Amino acid sequence: MLYLNKKIGMVSLGCPKNLVDSELMLGKLRSEGFEIVNDADEADVIIINTCGFIESAKQESIDTILEMAALKERNCELLVVAGCMAERYRTEILEEIPEVDVILGTGSYHEIADAIREAYSGKRVSRHRELADISYLDGERIVTTGKGYAYLKIAEGCDNRCTYCIIPALRGPYRSRKMESIIEEAQRLADAGIKELVVTAQDTTRYGLDLYGRKMLPELVRNLSSIGTVEWIRLLYCYPEEMDMVLLKEIAENDKVCKYIDIPIQHASQAILRKMGRRGSISDICRLIDTIRDEIPDAVIRTTVITGFPGETEEDFETLAEFIKKYRFDRLGTFMYSKEEGTAAYNMPDQVPSRVKASRYNRLMKIQKRISAELNRQRLGKVYKVLVEGVADDGIFYYGRSYAEAPEIDGLIYFTSEEPLEMNQFVNVRILDTGEYDLTGEAQHESS
Fold this sequence. Notes:
Blueprint: E1 7-12, H1 16-31, E2 35-36, E3 45-50, H2 55-71, E4 78-83, H3 84-88, H4 90-96, E5 102-104, H5 112-120, E6 125-127, E7 149-153, E8 155-156, H6 167-171, E9 175-176, H7 179-191, E10 196-200, H8 209-212, H9 217-225, E11 232-235, H10 245-253, E12 257-262, H11 270-276, H12 282-295, E13 300-307, H13 314-327, E14 331-336, H14 354-377, E15 383-391, E16 398-401, E17 413-416, E18 426-434, E19 439-444
Parallel strand pairs: 1-2, 1-3, 3-4, 4-5, 5-6, 7-10, 10-11, 11-12, 12-13, 13-14, 17-19
Antiparallel strand pairs: 8-9, 15-16, 15-18, 16-17, 18-19
């Protein structure tokens, strides 16, 4: 067949959920006879799985498309643009970037092989379907994160109508995967050597509500923890409004669940939370944080906040800054509000000037940098179980993560070892030095 030996290169942008979609497309293509290559320069077909969440992500997607389009002047034959930006701006991409041969929306990932074949017949292809069917998530995957960890996507879409967010329009309503399907995939990942399952969705805490009539994340976690070779289960995107004592108890008592709690709060001013369309109140958030720290003393709490939202006054910002100083989050992601067409916040009055947003962002980052450095110093001398992930460029240090560091978004632990170590094994590491984000230590062996 004409397509059997075509080489496919993938550039995946954006969040872990997008990465899973990229891995599923690669799995589909491999199963249909295409060859997967790591170097875009070697690819006959380049796929860019785009992100269209905020302005900076859109710009990165555009820059990448243009960069890959330049390869068509050499050996690349087809350029495919998939994902959120393809869903949102399909017409504009086709009109303004003639090098693009295929546009694939977020409801059409399973059609990737057919779309490429159609493009090889000389047609420009645009495929978009209703955002209801998520059966593609059950397909074969090529895990690209190595053998240490893999993301496990348990749902698609979102029912939280936050006024700043375009995701429901790009991904559809919240749809949970069947638990049996998730467990089967987790077992396949474990059989392939994966040690850490990173559970992800737009809102993991709502898992099961649409499918079973009640929240099922605690039961899912219990079932995942029964897979013998899996040692860590990490939960991302736990919305604070949906956290309850049942879930907290499971996190606290299940030895395989990382005591790492990711709760995006977005702001601390009640007025701004209301404008954002967030459920719950700041007093609820405060009670939740206090409860987490009471019930799970060694918990690492991560959150994200947005500064410069329409109508955010200096008083609102100071409320947020003081909140961050008070609660001293272990991990904090800060974003400047991005004005996105199609969202309720787009036409809100009192848009905050860019220079003010940038100033507030920098002030928050300065606060958090100090907090992070202080919290890291408290880890001096302590010993952590670390998943070995690689060797630093200097060839002296290994690097990896403890339960307190999520892959790709948090810092790393660099450490020496008197004995050679295998990748993806666990080793105990004593912390000897700290920075603002990364840590340095030495492996502890029985003879040490």
